[in-house]
């Protein structure tokens, strides 16, 4: 069935290094993708989004790459900081409605000082 | 602005009890959503609404009901609580017209014993 999934459940990096979190999706009709950050005990917070007519989008210290050929999405965090430690979710426009997102299971990012 | 506000933050129910999770937003968003998040998992869509008076089922609607009498409020009702409904519930809203970015509340942690 249609799904959004992640390759690595946990990613551990050293402070100052760059982090790359990957996500695979299976619905080739998806046209909108979004990354959320969730800190312990809090609701998800928007990080960055990208539409299917783009293959790269940059924000502050974050970059999202979209490869529609292999249905792969990645989030790159530059100069990772301890405050970046959280669970990161990718999501896509789901089958239940154009603006009802389908979420992946998440990747936990641990930043070592 | 307060954004998306959920109450209560925590609740323990006995099997068979009922309760309503409250959600209100002050951003004048047309789209509102209810998600549940089980431990170590992503978010699953329960119900959503594209405007006052309009609701629709998501991926996991069984055991829940919703109503949308105003733009601001989107309560979620559990009629006969079951242990399988133990989860963290997140309400979210979005503009919808200009972007699909969801704003999330801080969540309600529900335990059914």
The major pleated sheet of chain B works out as: 7 strands, mixed
Beta-strand share of residues of chain B:
over 45%
- Strand tally of chain B, please? 11
Helical segment tally of chain B?
0
Helix-strand makeup class of chain B:
mainly beta
How would you name the oligomeric state of the polypeptide chains in this document? heterodimer
Number of strands of chain A: 11
Percent of sequence in beta strands of chain A? over 45%
Structural class, from secondary structure content of chain A?
A: mainly beta
The total count of helices of chain A amounts to: 0
Question: Whole-number average pLDDT of chain B?
Answer: 92
What overall form of chain B do the CA principal axes indicate?
Answer: globular
Distance linking N and C termini of chain B: 36 Å
Q: Helix amount of chain A, in percent?
A: under 10%
| Greatest interface and its participating residue counts | A-B, 24 and 29 residues
| Coarse shape of chain A | globular
Main sheet characteristics of chain A: 6 strands, mixed
Straight-line distance between termini of chain A? 40 Å
Task: Please explain how this structure is put together.
The complex is a heterodimer of chains A (113) and B (113). In chain A, 0% of the residues lie in helices and 54% in strands. Chain A has no helices and 11 strands. The radius of gyration of chain A is 13 Å and the shape is globular. The mean pLDDT of chain A is 86. Chain B is an all-beta fold and 113 residues long. In chain B, strands 2, 4, 5, 6, 9, 10 and 11 form a 7-stranded mixed beta sheet that branches. In chain B, strands 1-3-8-7 form a 4-stranded antiparallel beta sheet, with no helix packed on it. Chain B is globular, with a radius of gyration of 13 Å.
